Structures are given as structure tokens and as C-alpha cells.
């Protein structure tokens, strides 16, 4: 649990610093480190820095794929706003399962 909090804070600081420089580097860094939680779950013995490096390695060449995948959920996000979050009961598990399958596809 403490490792998850630590990695969340570290990724948050990295993305924040990238966003201060300009918005685009912050987005790129967020996509680069987006897989760190899946890596930590699969390899609990791996250090936080190694998880960050591994996330960066597996996302090389896949950042645009993740961006397009995230963009495909824009309509679902609008639907959640319109229904005041009720659609989230269906959308959020679907979204998380989709991101998990994305990780399983690119980790090799």
C-alpha cells in the first residue's frame, strides 16, 4: 500500500513538472508512466524506480495507441456527465477492463 502511494505521488510530481513546462510534455509523461500500477501488481518485489523504467520501456511506440484508446471513451465520459454519474456504473468497469487489456497486449 505504501508503495502504491509512493508511486502515485512520484508520478504526480513528474507529470506536474512536465505540465508546468508545457501541457504536451505533461500528457506524454502521463502516458509514459500509465502502466506503472499494472507492473507493480505483477511484480511486487520490483522497486518503484524500476517500475517507472519498465513502464517507460513498454510504452515506447504505444503512447499514440493509448491516446486514441482514451479518446474513444470521450463519448462515454460525456454520457456520465449527462446522467450525473449513473452511467459510470457501467462505463468505469468497462474502461478499467479495456485499459487492463491494453497493458496485457503491450507488455510483451
Per-chain topology:
Layout: H1 2-21, H2 23-32, H3 36-42, H4 48-59, H5 63-71, H6 74-82, H7 88-106
Would you give an account of this structure?
- With 108 residues, the chain is mostly helical.
- Helices cover 80% and strands 0% of the residues.
- It contains 7 helices and no strands.
- Helix 1 runs antiparallel to helix 2 (23-32) and helix 3 (36-42) crosses helix 4 (48-59).
- It starts with a helix and ends with a helix.
- The model has no long low-confidence stretch (mean pLDDT 93).
Shape: globular
Q: What percent of residues adopt helix (DSSP H or I)?
A: over 70%
Poorly predicted parts: none
Count of distinct strands: 0
How much of the residues is beta strand, in percent? under 5%
Count of helical regions: 7
Largest sheet: none
Structural class: mainly alpha
Distance between the termini: 26 Å
Over all CA atoms, what is the radius of gyration?
15 Å
List key phrases describing it.
108 residues; mainly alpha; 80% helix
Offer a quick outline of the entry.
By secondary structure, this protein is mainly alpha-helical.
Amino acid at each position: 500500500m505504501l508503495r502504491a502511494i509512493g508511486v502515485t505521488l512520484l508520478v504526480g510530481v513528474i507529470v506536474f513538472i512536465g505540465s508546468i513546462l508545457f501541457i504536451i510534455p505533461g500528457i506524454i509523461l502521463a502516458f509514459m508512466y500509465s502502466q506503472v500500477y499494472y507492473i507493480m501488481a505483477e511484480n511486487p518485489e520490483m522497486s518503484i524506480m524500476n517500475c517507472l523504467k519498465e513502464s517507460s520501456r513498454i510504452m515506447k511506440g504505444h503512447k499514440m495507441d493509448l491516446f486514441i484508446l482514451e479518446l474513444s471513451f470521450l463519448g462515454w465520459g460525456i454520457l456520465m456527465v449527462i446522467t450525473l454519474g449513473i452511467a459510470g456504473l457501467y462505463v468505469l468497469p468497462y474502461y478499467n477492463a479495456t485499459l487492463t487489456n491494453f497493458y496485457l497486449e503491450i507488455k510483451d
